[in-house]
Amino acid sequence: MSEVLVIIPTYNEVESLPLILKRLFDAVRDIHVLVVDDNSPDGTGELAEGMSRDDPRIHVLHRTQKEGLGPAYLAGFAWAMERHYSHVVEMDADGSHAPEQLPRLLTAALGTKKPDLVIGARWLPGGQVKGWSKRRQLLSRGGNLYIRFALGMPLTDVTAGFRVYKVDFLKKMPLDRIESKGYGFQIEMTWKAWQRNARVHEVPTTFSERHIGTSKMSGSIIREAFVSVARWAINERLKPFLSGNTAQNVRRRRPERNRSNRSSKRT
Ligand code: GDD
Ligand code: MN
User: Fold this and answer.
1) What is the position in ligand 1's atom list of the atom closest to the CA of 213?
2) If pLDDT is split at 50, 70 and 90, which confidence band does 258 have?
3) Beta carbons of 70 and 161 less than 8 angstroms apart
4) Which of 76, 99, 169, 189 has a CB 3.0–4.6 Å from the CB of 27, allowing a cystine?
5) In this model, does residue 264 exceed pLDDT 60?
6) Is the CB of residue 25 less than 8 Å from the CB of residue 31?
7) Is 207's C-beta closer than 6 angstroms to any atom of ligand 1?
8) From ligand 1's centre to the CA of 69, what distance in Å?
9) pLDDT digits over 34-78, tens only?
10) What is the mean pLDDT of the segment spanning 94-100?
11) How many other C-beta atoms lie within 10 A of the C-beta of residue 178?
């Protein structure tokens, strides 16, 4: 598995990080990890640094300040692309994404269908969320419904943060034009991947709310995602007009745009 890199963004996860790394290596022994720390005041970066000195599987990227999940992952992708990795995994530090479920995601990612993106989906049959308030569940389910309605992707969990990307596919993505700072990053990456005809595969997973530390979710993260989705949806609907296509051209392009066979679900 040394060709797979697990990227773990951290901000104040000093208690969670050793636990998640232990669980990860118990689940997949020879996998590599990159901790991307935004100069956490609680010393997560120093802790990761120390762990990386004792364990060659662990690497650390120190960033100077908290800039959000999106820029942290983009820095991690750039780091992976400069090296020999074939796939990168996105995983939270707080234990919400169970490392024990990673082998199932990797089986899908490395399997014969060779998907560009595997999403660990919570709202598929077989997936679930443990420990979330009704409000947070509604936000996630409602958000995904809104995204499906606005952008027309037949996926169940576009905001999910437990994922596997093929590095060769990331190289084809316009990563320098990804704008989202917060969790909208997951939506933006999925949308831009979808627009580039990515093969996306959802695998049901269980998300368990953290027991240690606090979520970095905020009103501004929700607002950013909501507004961005509306903007992308409007752009998509205006595209035929902006590119000067006639109605006839638009009709002719339709069959190519049928992407229904590009997403598949595993149960
Ligand atoms: N480097 C860095 N910089 N890491 C960050 C930042 C940041 O600005 N903000 C959050 N993180 C890290 C956290 O330390 C954690 O490891 C991970 O990103 C997820 O953050 P949480 O704050 O625990 O997220 P959540 O539980 O509220 O949200 C989860 O669900 C969202 C909605 O489904 C995550 O899985 C999100 O990715 C997902 O979009
Ligand atoms: Mn969390």
Assistant:
1) 23
2) very low
3) no
4) 99
5) no
6) yes
7) no
8) 6
9) 999 999 999 999 999 999 999 999 999 999 999 999 999 999 999
10) 98
11) 18
Does ligand 1 come within 6 angstroms of the Cβ of 161?
yes
96 Cα–ligand 2 center, Å: 6
User: What is the distance of C-alpha 25 from the center of its chain?
Assistant: 20
List the Cα angle 92/105/87 in 5-degree steps: 80
The C-alpha angle with vertex 197 and arms to 83 and 227, in degrees rounded to 5, equals: 90
3-class DSSP state of 84: coil
CA of 215 to the centre of ligand 1 (A): 7
Tell me the CA–centroid distance for residue 11 and ligand 2, in Å.
11
- DSSP bridge partners of 118: 164, 201
Helix, strand or coil for residue 200?
strand
Read off the tokens for 14.
Answer: 């000093």
Which residue among 69, 124, 141 is best mutated to probe the pocket of ligand 1, counting the most ligand atoms within 8 A of its Cβ? 69
**Which two three-digit tokens encode residue 113?**
């269908």
How far apart CA 236 and CA 178 sit, in angstroms, is: 16
User: CA–CA separation, 20 vs 24, rounded Å?
Assistant: 6
Indicate which ligand has the atom closest to the C-alpha of 183: 1
Which ligand 1 atom is nearest residue 16's CA? Answer: 16
Q: Tell me the C-alpha distance between 17 and 8, whole Å.
A: 9
Q: What is the pTM of this model?
A: 0.92
Band (pLDDT 50/70/90 cuts) for residue 263 is low
Phi, psi of 173 (to 5 degrees): -85, 150
What pLDDT band is residue 267 in, cutting at 50, 70 and 90?
A: very low
